[in-house]
Amino acid sequence: MFSSRKLVEKGLExxxxxxxxxxxxxxxxxxGGMLTEYSLGDVPLFYLDSSTLYDxxxxxxxxxxxxxxxxxxxxxxxxxxENGREYEMKQHGLARNLPWQAExxxxxxxxxxxxxxxxxxxxxxxxxxxxxxxEFAYFITEGTITIExxxxxxxxxxxxxxxxxxxxxxxxxxxxxxxxIPAERYDDIKTGETKVFRGTPDFSxxxxxxxxxxxxxxxxxxxxxSDGFRVTVRYDDAYRYIVLWVLREREFLCLExxxxxxxxxxxxxxxRVKPGCEYRGVVSYSxxxxxxx
Length: 293
What we know:
Elements: E1 2-9, E2 12-19, E3 23-28, E4 34-40, E5 43-44, H1 50-53, E6 66-67, E7 78-79, E8 87-88, E9 101-102, E10 106-107, E11 112-119, E12 132-141, E13 144-153, E14 159-161, E15 164-165, E16 168-170, E17 178-180, E18 185-188, E19 193-196, E20 208-213, E21 220-224, E22 229-235, E23 241-247, E24 252-258, E25 271-273, E26 278-289
């Protein structure tokens, strides 16, 4: 049976969902509407640097940040939409740094659901001149998190965007015993080269690994942790890229589903939503001990 409760830690309101068989998930609406933790007993899915969580001046390093209305950077941090004005926006957009609204979770025997939402306001329009509403429903079951998303355009013009997630999956020891991404090539952001994908990289060889995989041939990517768990990211056709980001000195592996890639807003490659319409996406994470596969 699933249950929920509200907590307050260091001034942050936390929605905690938990079950009789040891599942725990935590959401912090005030820090980007973020899913910060999910665990099976004492085994975590996500990495979390708590010092960044409780410091509002820092981007949270950990959990599952929401990227909107862009993934990655803009060229020189700027873009010009159709109104002809130039706007500035930081890497990965604005949603991860804004407070979201949360509804009380719905808890059932074998699952739980929580809805979070974000609306545009005067401050967001200084960076992104569109009226929007994001509605996310998170479904929690044993070993799986599913995120159903709606991106709603309340403007009177087309709304360009490309959203994504930046999950910091906990990866103890060897970052990935085995890695599967359904693509033949990737762009290495650090070197500027395009390379053939030949399987699991040597993450100890360089301080930072930052690879963008396009031309995806299937709707899931996964890696095997050194502690015997397989982490699988599934995504619908709204998502066209997987980004792999690893820092050699940190115990996480980011396997990120993105709708667009670096600079797509500058290059006219964003998703466009008509006035009064919505765009939908679905992403899920599964977290299963390999002996149960």
